[in-house]
Amino acid sequence: MAAAFTAPFSPSPPFASFNRERTTRISFLPCSSAKFALSPLFFEKYGRNKLPIVSCNAMSKNGDNVEISQEEEAPRKFVWRDDKKPRVCILGGGFGGLYTALRLESLEWPDDKKPQVLLIDQSERFVFKPMLYELLSGEVDSWEIAPRFSDLLANTGVQFFQDRVKLLHPSDNLRMGAPTRSSYGGTVHLESGITIEYDWLVLALGADSKRDVVPGAAEFAIPFSTLEDAWKVNEKLKILERKTFGTNTPVCVAVVGCGYSGVELAATIAERLQNRGIVKAINVGNEIIPDAPPGNRQAAQKVLSSRKVQLLQGYFVSCIRQGEDNRSSGKQTDMRDIGNTPGAYDPDKLLLELQPTEKGQQSQLLEADLVLWTVGSRSLLPQLEPCEPYELPLNGRGQVETEETLRVKGHPRIFAVGDSSATKDSKGKLLPPTAQVAFQQADFAGWNLWAAINDRPLLPFRYQNLGEMMVLGRNDAALSPTFIEGLTFEGPIGHAARKLAYLYRLPTDEHRLKVGISWLTKSAVESVALLQDAVTKVLQGS
């Protein structure tokens, strides 16, 4: 059963350090991440290319001295707190990575086998991606759905380090012998130059948007999968809203893709812009969210229609380019223009060339102020530098092949979850890259790591589809649970149910409590405002 796993409170562990030949004592102010501000004198003494780096325990809030050591030539090496206890390194702090770390923290361990857990992510924040849409509607604040790892892990034994993974060097291949110790699993190389030896590794690097398949998409289209993406889209919408304020020119937003993400984006932005904008959704198929339960699809179609979202179905985007005047440039087009004067284009706008998927339809040219890209994703694993002969078994999508226990094939000390894992269901079909799948995989990965470390049998992962949810506006959503076939909660009821479900899924008890209080406060304020408006209308009518 999928659940949000929380970690019990425990004293903050001591700082870790990096092994160097010469050591220096430096006193730091209280910190909450692995990044420090050092004085110019420090750089003059050690040199910028020889900067000693320390792993600041994200849980420590005091001003204790931190030991830093420096070595001239050898690579910087992370030193674990206890060389005798298992060392678990988790790459990626999304749903799969963070929740695996918290699951490990929540389990009961023998004193000599409780692992040291290091979580590495390129961002300082965990992002609850299913609620990024609420940032555009103003329903949530960034801290509620994107808390800092340092805050989430403040009362756990999990260490956090912010960096990018450059290279994996596993040494647990079944055809190879371990080089130094019986429990040695391999080495992780980070872009900062730090190397980390591990006994057990969890791959949870996730995926990013795939826009390089369409000319101009990487340059002009904005994806919607990270906190930075949401901030960028929100800022772009604010600029367009200010630019068109008081004019008769509507803001035109083109959403590429009509899966869950595309439909949720289109519905949210259409509600925000109302009669000040036009939202056009481009879908390669003839049906939106084809894999969704019928109730969710019908609710989405009803909302999109009521908000006058234009669906361009049966088309794919072949090119995105800057607007221009084709007549003055001598260029000709036989495409049918949508929503603009044929032949004349605003240079500040973007042009999308649409090609039909079926014969008999005409190519079209779409003009937009903002293009949002929601189709295609790619695993981050293939982007790591190759390390022959230690390469991992990847499928055509760049996901690592795993056993049913989530252990990587041929590598007994590596587990993979989330978008990094090519896990299949009981029918042999690849599981979708959703938060629900990652939640459940994190539960099993944490347990199977416990079992492997304690020489117990591992459990096969079995995915249970608990239902599907989607947001359709500030007070609108659709939720189709699987325990009652054909049942769909939509509108305000679906919205409340979805929000409660995600509140329960937030990572820790402490954060869940803070967010719950914040949401209750906002609801109370909105209710009072609505009551005041109603009373005012009654008084004015009398």
Structure description:
- Residues 87-442 form the FAD/NAD(P)-binding domain.
- The protein is α/β, with parallel strands linked by helices.
- The protein is globular.
- It starts with 16 loop residues before the first strand and ends with a helix.
- The strands form eight sheets. Strands 1-4-10-9-8 form a five-stranded mixed sheet, with no helix packed on it. It has a five-stranded parallel sheet with strand order 7-6-5-11-24, covered by helices on one side. Strands 13-21-14-15-16 form a five-stranded parallel sheet.
- A hairpin with a 7-residue loop joins strand 19 (350-356) and strand 20 (364-368).
Characteristic key phrases:
alpha/beta, five-stranded parallel sheet, 542 residues, oxidoreductase, NADH-Q_oxidoreductase, NADP, flavoprotein, EC 1.6.5.12
Secondary structure topology:
Blueprint: E1 17-19, E2 22-27, H1 40-46, E3 65-70, E4 76-79, E5 87-91, H2 95-106, E6 116-121, H3 133-137, H4 142-145, H5 149-152, E7 159-162, E8 165-170, E9 186-190, E10 194-198, E11 200-203, E12 207-209, H6 217-220, E13 222-223, H7 227-244, E14 251-256, H8 260-273, E15 277-283, H9 294-306, E16 310-313, E17 315-322, H10 326-329, E18 336-338, E19 350-356, E20 364-368, E21 370-373, E22 377-379, E23 400-401, E24 414-416, E25 421-422, H11 435-453, E26 467-473, E27 476-481, E28 489-490, H12 491-505, H13 509-541
Parallel strand pairs: 4-10, 5-6, 5-11, 6-7, 11-24, 13-21, 14-15, 14-21, 15-16, 18-20, 23-25
Antiparallel strand pairs: 1-4, 2-3, 8-9, 9-10, 12-22, 17-19, 19-20, 26-27, 27-28
Helix pairs in contact: 2-11
